[in-house]
Amino acid sequence: MPINQMTTVHLTIRTLPELPAGANYKCVFGNAEPIDALMTGFGLSCPTPPVLERPNIPDGADHVLVPLSVRSSETNKDFVSRNFAFFDCSRHTVCTECVKSQWACSWCVYDNKCTHNTSCQGIISGENVSTLNKVQVKFSTDCY
Known about the structure:
Blueprint: E1 8-12, E2 25-29, E3 35-36, E4 38-39, E5 43-47, E6 63-72, E7 78-87, H1 95-99, E8 106-108, E9 113-115, E10 123-124
Antiparallel strand pairs: 1-5, 2-3, 2-6, 4-5, 6-7, 8-9, 8-10
């Protein structure tokens, strides 16, 4: 997930216990405030925490991992947890590093920058970017 983007995370949980009336599930991203989760047909969904509540990405890195836990308001205990990555494509300043990163980063040729936004002009699509329905996409071999 880009470090500066808000979105909803969908968690597939096959055996989600039913809660008593008045209780709910919460998503906990690292040290951020717990966020109310919405039960769905496949598990839970919850918004990502506000950008200001996210940890900083360390110098020299392009991402930070935080534990994403599901908590029951009934017990106030986390019962499932996985690492969740927040990344920053702009940490890459060279085309080849950008498009070969493990994240959905692409190189904007005319802006000379690495970004998760694939709508810029003259884009070189990263190796981990879905290219379905994209026209005139270049690939990592086009870095020069």
